Amino acid sequence: KQWYQRRVAITAGQEIRTNSVIMSLNSPVIDRLTSELHQSSLEMDDFTAGAVNCFVDSIYTGDVGTLQKQIFEDVNKMSHVFEVSWLTKRCLKFYKSDVLNFTNNSYQEVLFACEIASRAHYNLKQTRYVTCFVKNLMSRDISRKMFLQRYMADFAELSKRQLEMSLSMARNDFSLIMVPLTSHLTMNLKCKNLDKNAMYLLEACDVQKFRQDHPDNFDDAANLLLEISEVSECDEVKEVVRKFVRPNSGTEASSSENVVDLVETTEECEDDDEDDSDDEDFPEVSTQTDVEPERGWIQAVYGNTYPLISDNTLQFITTDNEVQKYIGMWYNLVSEEGGRVGRWFGMRCENTTSSQWSYYIEGCTVCNYNVQFLNSVPRDKVKHWIINKTSTHLNIVCNKVTVLNFNFATDSDPDKTDGEHNWSREAESVYIEFNVKLLLIMQ
Fold first, then answer.
1. 281 pLDDT more than 80
2. What predicted TM-score, i.e. pTM, was given to this entire model?
3. Were 211 and a residue from 40, 55, 164, 218 both cysteine, which residue would form a disulfide, CB within 3.0 to 4.6 Å?
């Protein structure tokens, strides 16, 4: 697979140069565009400049520190369009923690969150936003009835998306819909006709449930609709009224598939906190690895020191097989008493055809390349390396294949007597030197 240095063109005359490897590792869509269609630029004029900057920054850092409410929808849409799975989860967490964090329960801030949820579901098929919005609405003791009356006040101008959002908020309680619907029929239509929005809601109603749960409200609605049917000359109106007033036994509502059944999906929203654990929030670096990275990929800098991630693990990516190109790691090791010692671990590609890599571990083996070799290193050009140092072993996995499991006590050269003692210490950080052309490291 070939990787390309690509430019991402954004609005307002700005342009961001990005590394195609980093972008492609996060987005299978961008991966296909660059590696299969050989695109070197992406036009993203549908999104604001601030949102594009935030999107790129998030991919580079593995964090959403620059995400704000004003650009949230664009960033969420980009994460969905470009299939950045970890970012879509982070956007949902941001929606729950920031967008739904109302300061005074004002109509405008509740409406802002409502419309975000509605568009996310209607345009992106992300049902959890609606579920979490309604759950939050009810937990804050915000009257759905009052909110729906205001939300549906301009009834004739409501879009299909807003009608479906109204039904989702009602949660199978059609009496909440009948209040603004009745007002529209009497005040605007003068009890003479049904417009398309009124017919849509009536056809979506679970009449049997409405009649059972609110018999008085149903009778009032039925009488009003019969009055309208008598004066209307439209056959479609008469048929809608007939089905509503005298539904056949067992007839189900013809509700749109875009209406969220909150009864069934509330548990899904409650499970979000478990689904959004850190183990799943970050980029799927490669389809060839079982271990999901926990932070974000950055381009390594020669001579820099990097902290280890969980369990003394170091993860990095090489993008080509380059003969006699090395990666050297100086482990800063700390004893229980606080004493520090440094030891080198190095690895180098010796043969690009067979993907043969040699290694050395200072204090345990001869400190030269081309003496000890890793086992069965995959021949893929792009390699995801996971190096895990424990108190007893140095373990290396490359693209799911364990290529080294070195036991400091039993695998060290006979003349190396202090290797086990030093390498058993906890690793604090790693200083890196390399001459491969591109090295990405997880931080």
1. no
2. 0.61
3. 218
